[in-house]
Amino acid sequence: MKKVFSITECFPKLNRKQQLGEAWNLIDWKECQSHVDRLQRSIAVAMEYGNYAKVHELRRILYKSKAFTYLCTRRVTQDNQGKRTAGVDGIKALSPTQRMDLVEKLNDGIKRHWSPVRQAEILKKNGKTRTLGIPTIKDRIYQAKLKGIVEPCYEAIAEPNIYGFRPKRSTKDAIEQIFLSIRKKMEAWILEGDLKGFFDNIKVEAIIENDIFKDDIELKATIYNLVKSGAITVNNKLIDTDRGTPQGGIISPLLANIAFIGLEAFVKDWAWDNRERIGMRQRCECPIHVIVYADDFVVIAKEKWIVEELKLAISQWCMDKMGVELSSEKTHITDIYEGFDFLGCNVRKYRINETKSKTLIKPSKDSIKSIKVKIKDIIKSHVGISQDTLIEKLNPIIRGWANYHSGNVAKEIFASIDSYIFKRLWKWARKRHATKGKVWIKAKYWHKVGKRIWVFKTDNHELLTMSSTKIVRHTKIKGSHHIYDGQVEYWSKRVLTNKSGKKTRKNTCLAKQKFRCNYCKQLFKHDSVIELDHIIPKSCGGDEQSRNLQVLHRHCHDIKTRTDGSIKR
Fold this sequence. Notes:
Distance between the termini: 50 Å
Number of helices: 21
Strand order of the largest sheet: 2-1-4-5
Structural class: alpha+beta
Helix content: 40-55%
Radius of gyration: 26 Å
Largest sheet: 4 strands, mixed
Oligomer: single chain
Strand content: 5-15%
Number of strands: 15
């Protein structure tokens, strides 16, 4: 007879004489994750069918689940980048013993009061500052739990062309959707929209007055309390907050997306109301396209008057629904033949003749300027470091920028940036050896590799070139798919498709390991934090060869590092 599995079997029998830290490492994380995944898929299905009573019931079951609490605690205290940043409680990175002790104190229900966030300021690209709100460690875990029960509902009803802050969706999907929307049009006008102070000014009613929270008084109350929880400023003053989602919180991007639900439906309704002027015959064939990424959006229409009227209509809609306005500085109306910049790319049509045109997407001028400045600053400020160290600093930047634009028309731009890097490195080398000749400098720093003569390398490291990156068109996600739809085969194939052509050590290991962690043997999920690991640590004689590399979950990497001899105590 088949044994019936109980989730309580995942947790070790705690003995107070035994160290709590040992108990943390004995938890069956695989079964915990399987239990949570099953419940989240059920919530998404119930939401798709509009069964709000079932959604309400399943959300309570998941929220109270011990497995879910342990997973959220692990994510906040081990996986998240901000685990070493403290809130007003002063608590940051925790040991396994402290994690187990903390879990036992997490007994609040869905409706709860939140501590004020600690504000911190960071610089933006334009020189202005952005204020972040850093919650306490307990509040971060409760936010992770809220996100886990709300996100399946949002994904089930989200509009297909919203790409920002959604799992398994990226800027590349948004750019590809723009390409698909304009490639067959001979004429098109673009409305580039940007919301002013979006995250800081959202009305709380725009979030909670949504089908996601229908008839759920507790969930509405806790979101309301979260928005109104207040903040401790950089000057240590307590201030009240009555709107906005504090940037820095785990659930903040999701709440912003929920508030923004409805733009695509609004534009379609507007088009149907004006169908005679637009020439629209059927409601399902809307000639106007909307693409949204976070607080930026693009509206594509055939004629200029359409986007001009939509600009006014959308501006009023945003003010009425969310209490935010369009930024006059960043909102523009552009002819597609003049081109426009969106998410670091320049999108433009080029006319071939009266009946043919070509759409090209290239890196934007601002993006090119930004990468050149970053490379220049690194080389200029590190004249005294070794060649190995300089290569280690430059390679991640070169690889990351090239991979981001690997689906665009960027081969010539890659070559021009390679040339720019060479000139900066030549100045760097001449400055280090002002009394040496050109031949001596070339022989010291540049070597021959195959047919390439000028390769900036040492015995251990070689500088990457952008022009060696393959140009491979990105495969856009299907609009109807989301991560809670249970289509495992679709998501696996999609990852394989979009990893091709990218020569990174991490992606090579991912393909070799068939997207499983070598330590816990579990599949990497959409929100997994993946790190590259040396099987034999470098401190123990390991090398950089591919046979000595693997990818692990961040929490698995932490456990391995404590036991593989790389930490000398």
